[in-house]
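User: Just a sanity check before I run the rest of the batch. Below are the structure tokens for the first item. I only need the designed sequence back.
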């Protein structure tokens, strides 16, 4: 990242969010030394993580001055009573937002199998959750559309957009991490054509070793933009250098500057190479040209 990033890039990445897990958050002594105050921090809920650990992490982040958005994976929540219990615990520590996902398990633990059921349950509204994010897949999702394409994914997003229109919930799409701008731009165009006007928070991978990113990309089903990593892996002169999301961020920032109605309104960072490195990178990218002041 050059010392003086463009104003368009700075505007595009300012207000980024970042994702942590209880175990990765525990390694950070004080998030206030890394992130701008008020940063939205997603707390990922992996199957098997005790809800007490999730809530404790959320409470700590709220106390340190951050906006907290825990994951609520439908397929690991056994019933409505459990959903209500989790929502109540989060509300008690000052959380009023959640990312609703199906969850990375094949078989539901109980009553819920998709995020739409969580939305439609009424539990989150009753517990004071005013902002809900839902998953987006710019490169498709074989779990939802096994034969390829995006018919089922697009139908689900149209339903969620309709939910936003008929309720008071503030809803946005948070995507899987991507490595190339073109598939993201094409996907956003298709959303608009389908009548889905929800704002998009685009996922990118923070700085990390190339081998680490390839491993996560394969595990998460990242599709067409994997070619960016493959080209990088073929370049022996760059093979051992950390990968950073410079190119995708600059291209998306330029597209946003040229097309203000482009639905991507924020950047969400997956710190696959570590929270401190990702925070440092994004803070630097968010400084206006000529600025040397830290954001945090």
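Assistant: Here's the designed sequence for the first item:
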């Amino acid at each position: 990242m050059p010392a003086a990033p463009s104003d368009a890039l700075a505007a595009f990445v300012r207000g980024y969010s970042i994702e942590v897990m209880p175990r990765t958050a525990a390694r950070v002594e004080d998030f206030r030394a890394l992130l701008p105050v008020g940063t939205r921090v997603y707390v990922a809920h992996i199957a098997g993580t005790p809800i007490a650990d999730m809530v404790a992490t959320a409470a700590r982040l709220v106390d340190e001055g951050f906006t907290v958005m825990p994951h609520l994976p439908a397929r690991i929540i056994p019933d409505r009573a459990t959903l209500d219990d989790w929502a109540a615990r989060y509300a008690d520590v000052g959380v009023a937002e959640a990312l609703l996902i199906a969850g990375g398990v094949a078989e539901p633990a109980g009553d819920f199998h998709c995020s739409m059921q969580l939305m439609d349950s009424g539990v989150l509204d009753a517990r004071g959750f005013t902002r809900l994010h839902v998953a987006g897949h710019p490169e498709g999702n074989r779990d939802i559309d096994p034969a390829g394409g995006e018919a089922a994914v697009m139908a689900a997003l149209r339903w969620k957009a309709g939910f936003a229109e008929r309720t008071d919930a503030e809803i946005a799409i948070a995507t899987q991490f991507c490595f190339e701008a073109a598939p993201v731009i094409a996907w956003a165009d298709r959303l608009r054509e389908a009548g889905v006007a929800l704002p998009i928070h685009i996922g990118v991978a923070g700085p990390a070793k190339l081998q680490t990113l390839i491993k996560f990309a394969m595990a998460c089903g990242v599709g067409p933009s994997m070619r960016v990593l493959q080209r990088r892996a073929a370049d022996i002169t760059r093979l051992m250098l950390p990968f950073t999301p410079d190119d995708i961020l600059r291209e998306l920032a330029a597209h946003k500057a040229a097309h203000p109605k482009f639905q991507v309104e924020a950047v969400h960072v997956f710190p696959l190479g570590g929270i401190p490195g990702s925070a440092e990178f994004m803070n630097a990218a968010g400084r206006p040209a000529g600025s040397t002041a830290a954001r945090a």
